[in-house]
From TrEMBL:
It comes from Halanaerobium saccharolyticum subsp. saccharolyticum DSM 6643. The chain holds residues 1 to 238 of 369 of the full protein. One of its GO terms (cellular component) is ATP-binding cassette (ABC) transporter complex, substrate-binding subunit-containing. Residues 4-234 form the ABC transporter domain. This is Multiple sugar ABC transporter, ATP-binding protein. The keyword Transport applies. Keywords: ATP-binding, Nucleotide-binding, Transport. GO terms for biological process: carbohydrate transport.
């Protein structure tokens, strides 16, 4: 079953074509990584899937439904950004509960979801703390927790690890892969880091100038790049 489908999607900003004729079928529970150099259209693609950016042309489907005109909050997705801002005056519990409160979830359901997410992320001991009392890695977990409590069918992540130091970044890669196994959801993950893409993705989508260059599993991509750009990009150090 297809989880997210792009059909001939374009995004124009004035004269600039940021996303050009992208077609892609992401399977249910797949971990797909969008990778490419800065400015190639990764964030724009993700933001269109999230509904944060209007589509200029084409269709995006979640499941069988075309969601072009569906508001972000009504799509069965949650997004984690690079610059996740936690609410500084709220403790960890309230940061994670906030979105559910807005959506008028019952209190016991909120409690159940926050506890469960905290458990999965190993932050049960931190629920009373304020963001400034947390390390970078702990803050990133809380940001993930805010998405997990939504229990979405699809997770979108835009360079969620790029603000962490190198050691923590490697550790979080493994944790995110585990999280994907545990949650059994579709993940669409954006990075400009080839190593991150190659170690995390079931399939990798390589972008250049808004155009999909190749969609393949890591090994095929490595062994059989479609063109010089893909070969050079995948083969070069991050
Ligand atoms: P990436 O995430 O791969 O670095 P983006 O999707 O952010 O790339 O940007 C793709 C292209 O679209 C870039 O040239 C960028 O400058 C441009 N762009 C992105 N958002 C806007 C916007 N709101 N207005 C004008 N141009 C934009
Ligand atoms: Mg980006």
């Amino acid at each position: 079953m297809a989880s997210v489908t792009l059909e001939h999607v374009y995004k124009r900003f004035g004269d600039l074509v940021a996303v050009k004729d992208q077609s892609l079928e992401i399977k249910d529970k797949e971990f797909v990584v969008l990778v490419g150099p800065s400015g190639c259209g990764k964030s724009t693609t993700l933001r269109m899937i999230a509904g944060l950016e209007e589509i200029s042309e084409g269709d995006i489907k979640i499941g069988d439904n075309i969601v072009n005109d569906v508001a972000p909050k009504d799509r069965d997705i949650a997004m984690v950004f690079q610059n996740y801002a936690l609410y500084p005056h709220m403790n960890v519990y309230d940061n994670m509960a906030f979105g559910l409160k807005l959506r008028k979830f019952p209190k016991d359901e909120i409690e159940r979801r926050v506890q469960e997410a905290a458990d999965i992320l190993g932050i049960e001991q931190l629920l009373e703390r304020k963001p400034k009392q947390l390390s970078g890695g702990q803050r990133q977990r809380v940001a993930l927790g805010r998405a997990i409590v939504r229990e979405p069918q699809v997770f979108l992540m835009d360079e969620p690890l790029s603000n962490l130091d190198a050691k923590l970044r490697v550790q979080m890669r493994t944790e995110l892969s585990k999280l994907h196994d545990e949650l059994q959801t579709t993940m669409i993950y954006v990075t400009h880091d080839q190593t991150e893409a190659m170690t995390m993705g079931d399939r990798i989508v390589v972008l250049k100038d808004g155009v999909i260059q190749q969609v393949d599993d890591p090994l095929s991509l490595y062994n059989h790049p479609n063109n010089m750009f893909v070969g050079g990009f995948i083969g070069s150090p991050a």
